[in-house]
Write a structure and sequence with these properties.
Helices cover 0% and strands 48% of the residues. The chain is mainly beta. The chain has one domain: Immunoglobulin-like (Sandwich).
Length: 89
């Protein structure tokens, strides 16, 4: 007998035009601008490990401690969650 598990992921996307992330690729700081209030920012490895978290976000996050590579950036606003790929040089 085989057991099956069904996982459902729901992401309430923020209108992409309201979110600006630069520079991408980043070297030291990553700036995130939005018309909406940004509540929290998280950076994950591609394997899903939480590497950084900013609960009181103020327009930029330092990525200087991250190795070169590709990461997932999660931006939480009053309207939901936006997930973007960011690159570290």
């Amino acid at each position: 007998m085989t057991a099956r598990t069904k996982a459902t992921f729901i992401i309430d996307n923020v209108n992409a035009s309201r979110l600006t992330i630069f520079p991408n690729p980043a070297t030291n700081d990553l700036f995130i601008k939005s018309d909406l209030q940004i509540n929290k920012v998280e950076i994950y490895s591609l394997s899903g490990i939480l590497l950084m978290q900013e609960n009181f976000f103020t327009e930029k996050i330092s990525v200087s401690s991250l190795p070169k590579g590709i990461f997932l950036l999660k931006v939480y606003t009053e309207k939901g969650l936006e997930v973007r790929k960011v690159f570290k040089d």
